[in-house]
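Q: Here's a chain of 108 amino acids. Please give me its 3D structure as tokens.
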Amino acid sequence: MRMKKISVAGIGCHLIDRILNPVDFNSEVFKNYKSMKPGDGGIVPGHLVFADDLVKFRGKSLNEIINEITSEKTTEEISIGGPGIVSFIHAAQMSCHLKSEYSFYGFK
């Protein structure tokens, strides 16, 4: 039996996670960026924080904030994330044994 090629197109949200080290979560500098109330744009460890919201929260550029929090000594890892792209990647991995083609169109 001959299998047809499967073509799957996805559209959705994608995010880029920037993982910075070292960060002292107990430092006074870090505490200046922590959220004071839900939805104010500040950092909540373990939760999603949008860069644009953090910039508005403190009125500084993202690079300034990162340099302060990391004392300008950082290594950075990039990780792709977001509900749209992650589920799409999982579907592609599960069907890797099939004749398949996946195309994802993300938006910010």
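Q: Can you summarize the key feature?
A: The mean pLDDT is 82.
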